[in-house]
Amino acid sequence: MTKWLWQLKWAFVIAIFAGPALAYFEHQDSQRIQRIVAQGVEVDARIDEALVHHHRRGSDTYELRLSFDGPDGARYSEYVDISSAYADRILIGGDAAVVDHTQIKYLHAEASEPVVIVDDADTQLAGDQRMMWFGIIAAILGVVISPLWFWLEARNKKKDDEDIDATLARMRAGQQP
């Protein structure tokens, strides 16, 4: 039990720094999606492959390999993460897509940025928003709970030390504990 509490205490300390970092990166991703949806070029992309990544804790993440023609006439191929809600709509058995095309948006000026699947943009934005709030709340909890936890731990240790000292003093005086 004490080992679990010790790990939880340090998780709150880590949350002080990891929470804002998570919120920042999710905010950046949200801004990228909004920018591409607002200013991007919409094209039809072919779904070449659907991938399901199974994780140890039972969760799955989904990814599509899309190919599409760019404005320069070149054929592009890109892997794009999709939400589980969108995967439920287009995948059969987890790894075969029921549709073979989807609409995407991208900014040619930002070719290094991932494309956005039009039908999945709202779900991706909602997920980014949830994770951003999770990061903010984790940081706030870390800032509030960590100092309190350390203070309580120090207070209890001081009290335990005083109890031990009092017991030792009684034993030296010949009294029973």
Walk me through this protein's architecture:
The structure is a single chain. The chain has 177 residues and is α+β, with helices and mostly antiparallel strands. The protein has one domain (2-139). It has helices at residues 2-39, 84-90, 121-172; strands at 41-54, 60-69, 75-82, 91-92, 96-97, 101-106, 116-117. Helix 1 runs antiparallel to helix 3 (121-172). The mean pLDDT is 86.
The Rg value, from CA coordinates, equals 27 Å
Strand order of the largest sheet: 3-2-1-6-7
Low-confidence runs = none
Helix content: 40-55%
Strand segment count:
7
Global shape: elongated
Integer tally of domains: 1
Q: Which structural class do you get from the secondary structure elements? A: alpha+beta
Q: Secondary-structure element sequence? A: HEEEHEEEEH
Mean residue pLDDT: 86
Tell me the distance between the termini.
28 Å
Figure out the total of helices.
Answer: 3
Q: Largest sheet, if any? A: 5 strands, antiparallel
Strand content is 15-25%
Top keywords for this entry?
3 helices, 7 strands, single chain, 177 residues, two-stranded antiparallel ribbon, elongated
At a glance:
The chain is of the alpha+beta class and 177 residues long. The chain has helices at residues 2-39, 84-90, 121-172; strands at residues 41-54, 60-69, 75-82, 91-92, 96-97, 101-106, 116-117. It has one domain (2-139).
Architecture blueprint of SSEs:
Blueprint: H1 2-39, E1 41-54, E2 60-69, E3 75-82, H2 84-90, E4 91-92, E5 96-97, E6 101-106, E7 116-117, H3 121-172
Antiparallel strand pairs: 1-2, 1-6, 2-3, 4-5, 6-7
